[in-house]
Amino acid sequence: MIKVFLVDDHQLFLSGVKAELNASFELVGVASDVDDAIEDIRSIRPDVVLIDVHMPGGGGLAVVTAVHETDPEMKFLALSVSDAAEDVIAMIRAGARGYVTKSIQPDELAAAIRRVNDGDAVFSPRLAGFVLDAFAEVVPAPIDPELDQLTPREKEVLRQIARGYSYKQVARRLSISIKTVESHVSAVLRKLQLSSRYELTRWATDRRIV
Amino acid sequence: MVRVRLRVFTCCEGGKHCGIIVAGREYTITDHVTDHLAGAGRVKRPGLAVRRRADDRILTGLAAGIAGVLEIDPVFVRAAFVTLSLAGGVGVLAYVAGWVLTLDDPDPKAVAALQEKVAVRGTRRRVALGMIFLGLLLLLKSLGLWFGDSLVWPTAMASFGFALTWSLIDQTRRSQWTRRAFPVGEANKGGSAARIIVGGVLMTAGLGLYLQSINAVGLVGGVVLAVVVTVFGFVLVFGPWMWRLINQLADERRERIRLDERAEVAAHLHDSVLQTLALMQRTDDPRRMAMLARQQERELRSWLYGNEQLTAGESLRQALEALAWRVEDVHQVPVDVVTAGDLPLNDPLRALVGAAGEAITNAARHSGGGLVSVFAEVEGPNVDVYVSDQGIGFELDSVPEDRRGIAESIIGRMQRQGGSAIVNSQPGEGTEVHLSVRQP
Question: What's B156's DSSP letter?
Answer without folding.
Answer: H
